[in-house]
């Protein structure tokens, strides 16, 4: 790429916005040139606006500290400074839908971490290794919006990343039923242990809205693009429980699966280890070289040892074994703010750039 694309981050002061900033430092294709947030942050330098609320283990990049934060609601003003934006705004669902469409209508592509548009009929929800072909839905969306370059694309919920890739890898064996319990890190709520001291040594057996997302979103990701819309996968039927646990980063899933065509353990492992998609084929900058690793040790995957596999962009699977009620069971682990949130959105943007959907204005 001869010239880096100009990137804006909507909701730049929150945890996911911070993660976008960290990931895009020294990115070979993109340059962060605009940061936007709420009115209370607008007019301040980014360093002033964030203050003591920088939540990441790595320090704030020097190149953003002195950028003056814009008001995210001044859509035209923000849009004229960028080629595309990442959205991590903290608003109501209706407000998010409205503001993301407003940016798209300025001919600014929006790659969103938010859930608001995940079920909008013509907005693709993509894990690039699994369903990059769903980005073709963008043409239908542009016709509705009346745009030539502007559109919205989203990534799915962080909770599904630790088991949905397995279902995609095992598609030829036709999974029919899935029972998954996810043990989810506190950064998924935008918090760390300083913000949420009551989570130390604690478990909360409820995360609002998470179980519905975990059961339904995989069916859209695994669905088929047909006649300008996504037809949901009819199988597998999925039921989940989602539990908040005292871990900073990393969502773990304990999963049980039934198959229509009965595979062997060796066949399942082979499919995991060789599963790849568009990001690997095109060697995209943020793509893990191997999307899924299978670990043979009985005590893996572990958050402390495996959450940063492939810079947090890979998925770790272990303890695959036959079950007395279901065909097989396994444990999966993914990094919720990297693969599951900002990193997954960056990989979507790279895929969209490579496919020609995102270009300079």
TrEMBL record:
Segments forming domain Semialdehyde dehydrogenase NAD-binding: 6-138
Broad enzyme group: oxidoreductase
Annotated TM spans: none
Pfam families, sorted: Semialdhyde_dh (PF01118), Semialdhyde_dhC (PF02774)
EC number: 1.2.1.11
Keyword entries, A-Z: NADP, Oxidoreductase
GO molecular function, one term: aspartate-semialdehyde dehydrogenase activity
Stated family: Belongs to the aspartate-semialdehyde dehydrogenase family.
Protein name: Aspartate-semialdehyde dehydrogenase
């Amino acid at each position: 790429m001869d010239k880096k694309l100009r990137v804006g981050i909507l909701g730049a002061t929150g945890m996911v916005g911070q993660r976008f900033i960290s990931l895009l430092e020294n990115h070979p294709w993109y340059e962060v040139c605009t940061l936007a947030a709420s009115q209370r942050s607008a007019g301040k330098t980014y360093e002033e606006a964030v203050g003591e609320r920088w939540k990441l283990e790595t320090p704030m990049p020097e190149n953003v500290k002195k950028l003056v934060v814009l008001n995210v609601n001044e859509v035209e003003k923000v849009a004229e400074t960028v080629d595309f934006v990442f959205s991590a705004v903290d608003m109501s669902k209706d407000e998010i839908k409205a503001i993301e469409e407003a940016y798209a209508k300025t001919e600014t592509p929006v790659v969103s971490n938010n859930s608001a548009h995940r079920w909008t009929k013509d907005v693709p929800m993509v894990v690039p290794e699994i369903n990059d072909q769903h980005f073709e839905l963008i043409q239908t969306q542009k016709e509705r919006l009346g745009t030539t370059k502007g559109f919205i694309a989203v990534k799915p919920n962080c909770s599904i990343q630790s088991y949905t890739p397995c279902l995609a890898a095992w598609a030829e064996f036709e999974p029919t039923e899935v029972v998954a319990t996810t043990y989810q890190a506190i950064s998924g709520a935008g918090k760390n242990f300083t913000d949420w001291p009551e989570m130390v040594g604690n478990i909360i057996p409820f995360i609002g809205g998470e179980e519905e997302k975990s059961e339904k979103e995989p069916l859209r990701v695994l669905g088929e693009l047909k006649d300008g819309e996504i037809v949901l996968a009819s199988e597998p039927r999925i039921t989940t429980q989602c539990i908040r646990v005292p871990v900073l980063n990393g969502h773990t899933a304990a999963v049980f699966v039934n198959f229509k065509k009965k595979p062997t353990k060796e066949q399942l492992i082979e499919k995991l280890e060789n599963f790849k998609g568009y990001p690997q084929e095109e060697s995209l900058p943020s793509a893990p070289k191997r999307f899924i690793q299978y670990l043979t040790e009985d005590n893996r995957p572990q958050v402390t040892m495996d959450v940063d596999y492939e810079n947090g962009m890979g998925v770790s699977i272990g303890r695959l074994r036959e079950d007395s009620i279901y065909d097989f069971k396994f444990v999966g682990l993914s990094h919720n703010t990297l693969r599951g949130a900002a990193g997954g959105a960056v990989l979507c943007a790279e895929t969209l750039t490579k496919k020609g959907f995102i270009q300079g204005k």
